[in-house]
């Protein structure tokens, strides 16, 4: 493992997750002074109870809600859409062959070839370790699958685009009531595997990319920010 200046580290990251790919308003980039980088901790989210002693830099996927105590670099939507980034990592984890972008204008999402029963596709999500799976419009067979890491099912415009592209199933996270009704009315199968679960393949790949720079990199999975309880009514 080597030590590199933060300017060189940022330059390397910009090659794999170009900042110009970030969606408008996304809070990406470096926050901190000039430092030497030897040890990096990769996180989906910064939490105040995460021990950061011994690390020079945090690489965060989500912009932090509270300021971390050490320098950090956020790579968010630019990593989601990058070639080989989070959306591609999700498709690879599911064993799907990428055919095209879901949204060519932004680079968000991938449309993949598939020749699977829905049951087989749901079984493949086991590699993501989802806490739950929610499915709208179950069907027996899927031939084309759209995937978006993280937020995709909260965005009605992406659901409409998936439907217009003729995919039979759309897998992502963050499904809410309105988008579920939209998918139901369009007879599009929606699979919500969770925001956290669908982003973890991209975080594992990000750690590998950083390690390829020659810098020591570790990934800490902080999990989902809530606990789930099932209400019991008598």
What does this structure look like?
With 234 residues, the protein is α/β, with parallel strands linked by helices. The protein has 2 domains: 2-78 and 196-217, NIF3 (NGG1p interacting factor 3)-like (Udp-n-acetylmuramoylalanyl-d-glutamate--2,6- Diaminopimelate Ligase, Chain: A, domain 1, 3-Layer(aba) Sandwich); 84-195, NIF3 (NGG1p interacting factor 3)-like (Udp-n-acetylmuramoylalanyl-d-glutamate--2,6- Diaminopimelate Ligase, Chain: A, domain 1, 3-Layer(aba) Sandwich). The protein has 7 helices and 13 strands. Helix 5 links the parallel strand 10 (141-147) and strand 11. Helix 3 (86-93) packs across helix 7 (195-212) and helix 5 packs parallel to helix 6. 41% of the residues are buried. The model has no long low-confidence stretch (mean pLDDT 96).
Write a brief caption for the model.
Keywords: Metal-binding. With about 230 residues, the protein is α/β, with parallel strands linked by helices. It has helices spanning about 5-15, 75-80, 85-95, 120-125, 155-165, 175-185, 195-210; strands spanning about 5, 30, 35, 40-45, 55-60, 70-75, 95-105, 110-115, 135, 140-145, 170, 190, 215-220.
